[in-house]
Task: inverse folding
């Protein structure tokens, strides 16, 4: 299975600057690709396009040869955001947050170190690191084929970062999930990725 980004162009406003122009990238489901570029070059924008939050002005995004838009319901490309507190409904208990996506296996919940007691809490009653574990678990539903990780551990201490990445790498390798990881940390990308791609400024 592959994710194909074919000649994608995007700008937020008609008279604004082009964030992406004719951007092409193919990611196989066996790959872990690191996306590098300075701040403001469009890494998050690309992730939003790939997960269907934004639509390209031009070009197409294909999953297994089919346009992303043809996948009704659960999106096979799941994104984990940098700030977990902005990615969850503050009115839902964490048990319900987990149920928002596809079925998440108990193994994943345990593997990410999510404690039973946290499931009954609201997002505001968890630390950023605890909350991020839920966002990662939610993104690892059964039908996930590609995972976009946009600076997902930047705000965490090194031990927690390492625990989370250790689990994630095992999981994506075992299930054949392709990974696109964004980070400003070159050593992290070198450790977790099979190759790196540089985004150029338009
Ligand atoms: N909703 C928006 N409306 C207008 N411009 C936006 C919007 N979101 C982002 N931008 C602009 O698009 C450009 C790319 O932003 P993006 O967040 O994709 O960059 P990035 O490479 O992920 O940066 P960082 O490394 O700082 O997270 C930036 O110049 C930003 O100001």
Result:
């Amino acid at each position: 299975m592959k994710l194909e980004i074919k000649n994608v162009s995007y700008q937020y406003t008609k008279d604004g600057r082009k964030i992406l122009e004719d951007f092409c990238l193919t990611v196989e489901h066996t790959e872990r690709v690191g996306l590098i570029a300075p701040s403001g070059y469009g890494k998050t924008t690309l992730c939003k396009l790939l997960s269907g939050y934004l639509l390209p002005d031009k070009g197409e995004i294909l999953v297994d040869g089919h346009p992303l838009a043809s996948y009704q319901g659960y999106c096979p490309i799941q994104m984990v955001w940098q700030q977990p507190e902005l990615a969850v409904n503050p009115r839902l208990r964490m048990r319900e947050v987990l149920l928002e996506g596809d079925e998440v296996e108990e193994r994943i919940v345990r593997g990410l170190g999510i404690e039973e007691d946290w499931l009954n809490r609201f997002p505001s009653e968890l630390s950023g690191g605890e909350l991020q574990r839920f966002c990662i678990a939610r993104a690892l539903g059964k039908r996930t084929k590609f995972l976009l990780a946009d600076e997902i551990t930047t705000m965490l201490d090194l031990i927690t970062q390492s625990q989370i990445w250790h689990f994630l790498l095992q999981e994506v390798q075992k299930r054949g999930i392709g990974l696109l990881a964004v980070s400003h940390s070159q050593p992290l990308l070198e450790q977790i990725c099979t190759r790196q791609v540089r985004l150029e400024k338009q």
